[in-house]
Amino acid sequence: MAIAINGINGGISGKVGNVVFYQRNGVGYVRTRAVRRKKEKASKALAFTRNKFKMMQQYIIRMLPVVRIGFQFGPGKGSAYNRALSYNLKNAVKQENESLAIDWPNLSLSQDLPNPVINASFMLNIQKKKLDIHWQLDPALAAKYSSMHMHACVMLVPVDLSTHNMQGILCGNTMNTQTQQVKLLTYAHKITHHAYLSFFSIDVPSRSTDSKYIGELVI
Question: Do 100 and 185 fall within a single domain?
Fold first, then answer.
C-alpha cells in the first residue's frame, strides 16, 4: 500500500483499473483491488477419474462374494476388494464418446494363477432355463493343477448390477470334467449378461485361476 499525495483539488479518491484511491483520517491511500477467488472447477481429467472410480466401485461391491476369493492372491496390495478395484480400474473401463462403459471382455472376477482353458463354448436353453458350458484344457497347466482340487466357477454378470444380481455357480464340477451346467433365473424381460469361467481350489488357502471371458448371452 502507498500513500497518495493530496492535489490542489483535494484528496484523491476513486479507482483506476484495479487500483483504488481512498481517504482515511485525512490521509490519502492507494491499493490494488481485492481479487475474488473462485472455486476452481474439477478438470475434465479429474471428473473422468472420479466417475470411473464410482462406476467400477459399484460393480466390485456387488461382485464381492466372488472377488473376495478370486483376488485374495491377486496383483497389487491391500484387501481382495482393493486388488479387484485397482485391477479393473486399469483394465476394464473404456470411454465411449463422452461416457464411460465397462469393457466386458477385460473385466476380471479373479486374478491369481493362469487360466488353463484354451477354448470354451456354451449352449443356452431358455425354455429349460439352463446353460451348458464346455472347455478344453492346456495339458501342461492341467497337470500342474491336478493336486489342487480345482472346481469350476461360472458367473453371469448382468449389464446393470444395480437392479439385477449375478447368477451362476461358485463351486461346480472339477476342472478335469470339462463341462458345467448352470440353472438360470429368467426375467419378464430380456437381460444381457456376460459370462466368466474360472476355477477355485477347495483346499485352504483357496487358490484360483484368472477368470476367462466366454461371451455374451441374453436371458
Answer: yes
